[in-house]
UniProtKB/TrEMBL annotation:
Transmembrane segments: none annotated. Catalyzes the transfer of pyrophosphate from adenosine triphosphate (ATP) to 6-hydroxymethyl-7,8-dihydropterin, an enzymatic step in folate biosynthesis pathway. Its EC number is 2.7.6.3. GO terms for molecular function: 2-amino-4-hydroxy-6-hydroxymethyldihydropteridine diphosphokinase activity; ATP binding; kinase activity. This is 2-amino-4-hydroxy-6-hydroxymethyldihydropteridine pyrophosphokinase. Pfam families: HPPK. Pathway: Cofactor biosynthesis; tetrahydrofolate biosynthesis; 2-amino-4-hydroxy-6-hydroxymethyl-7,8-dihydropteridine diphosphate from 7,8-dihydroneopterin triphosphate: step 4/4. Belongs to the HPPK family. GO terms for biological process: folic acid biosynthetic process; tetrahydrofolate biosynthetic process. Keywords: ATP-binding, Folate biosynthesis, Kinase, Nucleotide-binding, Transferase. It comes from Octadecabacter arcticus 238.
Amino acid sequence: MLKDSLDISFDMILVAIGGNAFSHAGDPCATVRAAIAMLQAEFSDLMVSNLYETPSFPAGTGPDFVNAACVFRSALPPEDILSTLHKIEADFGRERRLRWGQRTLDLDLIACGGTILPDSAVQTHWRALPLDRQKTETPDTLILPHPRLQDRAFVLVPLADVAPNWVHPLIGQNVTEMLARLPASNRADIKAI
């Protein structure tokens, strides 16, 4: 499934894919693969990472996940892309009941090129939010780039397959550099499927 990575420019859309519950498509691996097929039907020139088995986050909150990432080009506004992702999640029975709980499918809009939404101050606020507050607070607007991407190996490992050179517009590091900054223990339990 892995294609050669592109030189990621500012019009590239980065999406993280994951799931750890059965859907109508089958087990989490089958669900992620079926979701990728739907994404390929919606967005052209989609590049997809390998699939990975990753521990639940936070640790102990459920079965292991199957994670992947994809990149594609789009002229659509971020809100329209997010709406499409939410429709695909709903097609697989995604229900938003418990933060960080078990789910059939999770499609996270990670970045739209170098777009910062709603602005640098708000993005930085959510990026710096301590973990204990992340458990109970959620933004009421789309935040781009995703405020937790630099902290999550389960996002960065798949992204490194397809977008290693994408640079976070506020941190100033690319995916490979952000991944290298994480403790080795964060990457140790992530296994290619």
